[in-house]
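Study this pair:
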Amino acid sequence: MTTTDLLRAPDLAEPFGRAVARRLSTGADDLSYEARERLRAGRVRALAARKLEEVAPVTLGRGGAATLGLGERSWFNRVASVLPLLVLAAGLVMIHSFQADRRANELAEVDAALLTDDLPPAAYADPGFVQYLKTGGGN
């Protein structure tokens, strides 16, 4: 069986099932009413119990190798699918930590500059200080 046949199998299953159902229904007219009702009830139960399976998307790579996205999931597949999320979360935590440290360093530098300056910190709160800086007195 070739890869093309495997890819076409789901498309061929429906027409095959309909052909088998037609073939089985041709002799049903000769049966008694009770037998036909039992067959009909059996068909209804079979259709109700039928579970549609999710088919994994098939991607053909180079060399005709098929790669399935889903299917049987081993522990390795589960770990491999969660690993990128964990790496992303760890990266976001590291970025947040780096940004917080950088912001704290910037604030510490501003505080150190204010405390070591010739002006007292209360001068920066004075409304006339901005006017003093605008007139060029701060040079």
About this structure: The first strand starts at residue 58 and ends at 60. The beta strands are 58-60, 66-68.
